[in-house]
From TrEMBL:
SUPFAM superfamilies given in the database record: HAD-like
Organism: Cohnella zeiphila
Keyword Lipoprotein: no
A molecular function GO annotation: phosphoglycolate phosphatase activity
GO biological process: DNA repair
This protein's GO CC annotations: cytosol
Keywords assigned by UniProt, alphabetized: Hydrolase
Domain of life: Bacteria
InterPro entries, per database record: HAD-like_hydrolase_sf, HAD-like_sf, HAD_sf, PGP-like_dom2
Keyword Hydrolase: yes
Protein name: HAD hydrolase-like protein
Lineage start: Bacteria, Bacillati, Bacillota, Bacilli, Bacillales
Amino acid sequence: MSSIQMPEAVLFDLDGTLFQTESLLIPVHRRVFQTLREEGLYPGETPPVERLLGSLGMLLEHIWEKVMPDGSPEARHRANELLLRYELEELEAGTGRLYPGVPETLRKLRDRGVRLFVASNGLEAYVKEVPRLRGVADLFEGFYSAGEYGTASKTELVRILLKERGIRSAWMVGDRSSDVEAGKGNGLFVVGCDYAGFRSEGELEGADAVVGSFDELDGLLSP
């Protein structure tokens, strides 16, 4: 790949970019719906986990509308609570893994003076605990989540991050259309990640570069 100007900072999506989310969500999804049935909030069959994986990148309220369109507001609210609880329990138990090359590549970028951040539409505790429990939290300068900042879009979240941190040049790295929109909406160079396997066709249209594995990111940067 041809090299590109070194940015001051790189902003990463979490699910499907740094973290191999299906390795955690498959058992969590099963547990959430088992509990909803036990509590009498959702009598139906467990929806296919592919619906949940295909919704990653959305805000949580929109995720549950897609995953269980027939669910009540009470069921969706409870699903939110259970999702976070079970995600953290499973993470603590060792379930879920980063993509190959993530720790090594992040260290290379930081050693080259690049400031690293996470920008995710997820809940605050999840966005902070995944990096901590997988041993890479110390490589990041900050973690920004829709759950913490109450943002209605990733474009807004990234705008807040850039302003708070005084960043003038940055890359947005992610696997969903919301990442492309957030980057372009803030004048950033966008790198699309094409290795998660659960995005929709055409989601990375508009990205300035696309990588097929996380470690290709380092090769994009000029020496």
